[in-house]
Design goal:
GO terms for molecular function: glycosyltransferase activity; metal ion binding. By secondary structure, the protein is α/β, with parallel strands linked by helices. The chain has twelve helices and ten strands. It has one domain: Spore Coat Polysaccharide Biosynthesis Protein SpsA, Chain A, CATH 3.90.550.10.
């Protein structure tokens, strides 16, 4: 079975739990292993995450150590995009005893269909496959200009990534991503996503859009027909003011997790949390202004 990875911190643990529940129910992934890279996860978080995955999926925790977290926290973030977002760039190297392919799933996705297509997908000898972003051309031109590329260069979303672990390591892409992220100047649009697109360049294969589709504006029927739904953006489905129909699908899977009885996070609570994160980031000197697609 395929090796799968995700990353989360304590605040987004519920999202990861719902992703695991959807994977167990719909992903045709019995016997698979999910490596969950964590920062600040407590014992209850881990217990609940394992319970969310059920008995058919093995969950292994990779707790980022102080040195690893310190390196990531030196990179630029926002109130909504934390240092943990950059871990995906390093997963093939951190999992140094693994070979073959690795499927990375953002913690804020829900799996609706079998992942068999991705298990068999032809990477064509390239290090990465991903879904091309649907960003408007004018905004894409600005993003590409910021990372030193032609205006219309294809740009992928980093929420679902299929790695060829060996090829990624052979090209030394993890260290190259970290070096670029640590030294880049100027405005940032999508953080780790910008870094990955700059470093990988054109050496990736496009996956059909149904494997990473944002939920904004979709009807319930469109959501249910999508293989992997992505709750990208600032507002998440555990927020009380999240209004898109995809929340119905999220809530179905949430009901199968220990978070089922939790009250949604109010706008006021979210605002206070984000202000606190901003203050901590400014003290470290790493917070920038960005809305974020991720």
């Amino acid at each position: 079975m395929m090796l799968i990875a995700c990353a989360t911190d304590h605040h987004y643990a519920e999202l990861a739990g719902v992703m695991l529940a959807s994977l167990a129910k719909n992903g045709d992934s019995a016997g698979s292993e999910v490596v969950l890279f964590g920062a600040g996860l407590n014992n209850r978080d881990k217990k609940w995450l394992r319970e969310s995955a059920g008995q058919s999926i093995k969950v292994t925790f990779f707790d980022l150590d102080g040195r690893q977290l310190a390196a990531l926290r030196r990179l630029r973030t926002t109130r909504y995009i934390t240092a943990v977002a950059y871990v995906r760039m390093l997963m093939p190297d951190l999992l140094n005893d693994r070979i073959g392919r690795l499927l990375y799933l953002d913690c804020d996705v829900v799996v609706n269909h079998s992942l068999a297509f991705l298990r068999e997908f032809d990477l064509k000898g390239l290090p990465l496959a991903a879904v091309r972003s649907s960003i408007a051309p004018d905004k894409l031109a600005a993003i590409n200009a910021g990372i030193g590329r032609q205006a219309d260069a294809p740009y992928f979303n980093s929420g679902v990534l299929l790695f060829d672990i060996d090829e990624w390591r052979r090209r030394d892409l993890g260290p190259r991503c970290m070096d670029y992220a640590a030294n880049r100047k100027g405005p940032i649009h999508f953080h780790d996503q910008d870094v990955l697109n700059h470093v990988v360049g054109g050496d990736w294969v496009a996956i059909p859009g149904t494997w990473n589709r944002g939920v904004k504006g979709l009807s319930l029927e469109e959501c249910e027909a999508t293989a992997v739904l992505h709750f990208k953006g600032k507002r998440k489905p555990f927020h009380s003011d999240f209004v898109w129909p995809a929340k119905q699908i999220y809530d179905r899977h949430r009901a199968a997790t220990p978070w089922a009885a939790r009250r949604p996070i109010s706008a006021l609570r979210r605002s206070l949390r984000m202000r606190w994160k901003t203050l901590k980031g400014r003290i470290r000197g790493t917070v920038s202004a960005s809305a974020g697609e991720e």
